[in-house]
Amino acid sequence: MTLHKKKILFIASFVITLVVFASIFIFLSNIQVIKPQIETAASISLGMDVRIKGRIGVALLPSFGLLIKNVNVQNRGLDVVTIKRMKIGLKIFPLAKKEFQISRIGFAEPVFSFVRYKNGMYNFTKQERTLPEKPFAVKKISISEGNLVYADEMSGKKIEVNNFNLILRNLSYKESDSAEPAKSFSFKGKARCKKLKIHNFTMNNLAINATVEKGIFNLNPIRMDIFGKTGNGSIHADVTGPSPHYRVIYTLTYFRIEDLLKQYSLNKTPQKTIEGPVNFSAELTATGNSADEIKRSLNGNLSLNGEDLQLYSMDIDALIMKYERSQNFNLIDMGAFLLAGPFGPILTKSYNFTSLYEESRGGKGIIRKLVSVWKVKNGIAETRDVAIASNKQRIAMKGKLNFISERFVDVTVAVLDKQGCAVYSEKVRGPFRKPKIQKINFLTSLSGPLVNPLKDAWEFIQGKECTVFYSGSVVHP
User: Fold this and answer.
1) Which DSSP helix (H) or strand (E) runs through 29?
2) Distance, CA of 89 to CA of 64 (rounded, Å)
3) Residues 6 or more apart in contact with residue 62 via CB below 8 angstroms
4) How far apart are CA 279 and CA 223, in angstroms?
5) What is the per-residue pLDDT across 103-141, written as a single tens digit (0 to 9) for each?
6) Is 298 exposed, middle or buried (0-12, 13-18, 19+ CB in 10 A)?
7) What is the pLDDT of residues 131-142, one digit of tens each?
8) Percent over 70 (pLDDT), the chain
9) Which helix (H) or strand (E) holds 337?
10) What is the predicted pLDDT for the residue at 368?
11) Which of 87, 180, 462, 465 could make an SS bond with 106 (beta carbons 3.0 to 4.6 A apart)?
12) Separation of alpha carbons 198 and 161, rounded Å
């Protein structure tokens, strides 16, 4: 190429660029005038009332775009979203034709206020559900220092997300035959938040990495601080079929059991009942479009275990020795409180376990080992290895917990001898809130005063066969 032709090409390119930027400048110089048009277009798109209360400016660095301040989105006169600052990155050359093509969107200090009404509708739901008319792609969407409150009027529960940051990269929508929008979106993202509160349960320093592709959601890893320790897990969701399928894996090690019980304990229970480190793990799957369907299809494994836990206001060894004489408490109390492991807090919230504390007030004890392993199938949890050992005694639990009907199913708690046979036991049936307890007391067959119930029972059954009640990992002390 000759020098003359290079000059002509350079001048032509310069002129074209100058015309483009001049057109953009003229267009942007009138941006305040067309603010109402932007508000109207956004209102129609969202099906809500959108107002820009601040000015619209131009940002040149680090990328070209619009700066918008104080955006308010309302539905029926109530705030749904308020945004302190918003930046929209624009592709430059389409602006010459007065076309907006968005490359990036950034929200600073937004506040989201979502409500699910008693009729099942949301405060942000449009009357007619619509999908984007054309495919689109946005290179980056970000939220900084956001806050979110979700109130469910149907359940009375509330979710609060404080000081969260979100980055979604390469967000794209592709048209598909499915009416389910989740199957048409793809992106990669990261989310962080200082505090997440679900009803009365609080998690801190939540961090999630996510990948979404054609209806497949992978949230891995998920990290959060619970009870002063950092747990790790993952969530896999597949919504490509008629019913979404979920898989959840989570582990939390060496957290304090007293923090767990404090979260769920009744007002009548002592403030300090048990202390020590425990480990929790869960691997669950479920399928369904509603909470009830998910609960009925829940399958997997859960476990809680710990060693050398300090008991306050409770001496298991002393309690067992006086159990036959006093009958002032139930073994079921101890079983649900200590043996049910990951389900213990749920049961103590449903049933008033107070007789055990009244009977044992003032004593102290040790749990040398706690193991609580459960198998969940179709919403029903069944014991696999559930037992505790103190300095002198061993107690085990067998049976099922039906979380669909919220009932005990032949749950039995037994004090064991060295062979793993039940010296005496109790069975519980019926609803969690009002169970029926049946004593199956082997010692009633013994006559005369009992100086040492366990010793006398052991001497009575020596040399005779018994049915082993428990043969799990917790050995007799």
Assistant:
1) helix 3-29
2) 6
3) none
4) 16
5) 788 899 999 999 988 887 888 776 554 555 566 678 888
6) buried
7) 555 666 788 889
8) 69
9) none
10) 92
11) 87
12) 9
First to last CA, the chain: 94
On the question of pLDDT at 355 being above 70, the answer is no
Task: List 301's β-bridge partners, or say none.
Answer: 283, 375
Q: List residues bridging with 386 in a β-sheet.
A: 372
Cα atoms in the 13 Å half-sphere on the side-chain side of 111: 9
The number of residues in the chain equals: 477
CA distance 134 to 215: 18
Task: Report whether 248 contacts 232 (CB < 8 A).
Answer: no
Alpha-helix runs per DSSP H in 275-378: 291-296, 316-326, 331-334, 344-350, 355-360
Burial status of residue 155 (CB atoms within 10 A of its CB: 0-12, 13-18, 19 or more)? exposed
DSSP type of residue 445: G
Count of other CB atoms within 10 angstroms of residue 302: 20
Give residues with Cβ within 8 angstroms of 268, minimum separation 6.
352, 354, 357
Read off the pTM: 0.77
Helices (H), 265-414: 291-296, 316-326, 331-334, 344-350, 355-360
Residue in this structure with the two tokens 């969940």, named with its chain if needed: 376
Kind and range of the H or E element at 222? strand 216-226
Please tell me the distance from the alpha carbon of residue 265 to that of residue 235, in angstroms, as a whole number.
29
Interatomic CA distance for residues 143 and 153, integer angstroms: 27
